[in-house]
Amino acid sequence: MSLKFFAPLILSAVVFLTGCGQEDTPEAALNEIKIALAERDSKKLSERVNLDKFFSATYDASTVALAANYDEYSAKYPDDPYFQHSAEFLQTYNAEHKDLHLKFLDGVKAAFFAKLPEPATPEENPTAYVANEFEKIRQATDATIKETRIDDDRATVILDVQGDSSLRGQFIGQMTFELAFRRDEKNRWHFYAIENLDELTPALVDKAEIVWITF
What we know:
Elements: H1 7-12, H2 26-38, H3 42-46, H4 51-68, H5 70-76, H6 87-113, H7 126-139, E1 141-151, E2 154-163, H8 167-172, E3 174-183, E4 189-194, H9 197-210
Antiparallel strand pairs: 1-2, 2-3, 3-4
Helix pairs in contact: 4-6, 4-9, 6-7
């Protein structure tokens, strides 16, 4: 199992880093997500985002984005077994292993909220290792809301994410996310998707290749 399979999902999680506002707005929802992650409060987080649905939908969207530019990745990373076949192989492989991969992410989520200590090596406890790496990346990253567009019960928040001067901050660098929110019948906003995942995927693949770890 390779950590890089999960990079688009793990790295995209750093978008939950900023927000403000008193009334219920997409920005307020984002701020509550930021606080819930900082406090490791899974209940508070679940009030603003269904992580299981987000992970599943993002997994499928990432598979489509990877397959769309498979030949480019294959030429750029010829030593990566993941890119030594075809786009059709990738789609079939991901579909067949989706439950296994999402189970791994569920373990990462559990390890994160349980505050499991960092293992001495990734192999010792892979999910705890990834959870601790996420926390380090979260602390090394800042974000600024550039724009919010609201269309009835849907909204898009444009978020600039910037890493600090640390190694992990430099690894993140600068990325712009377009976050999709929707409003429920109680006028509460909920995050549910990254709208520009296809644009971000090439950069996320490059970052994943840097931290390629096989368990």
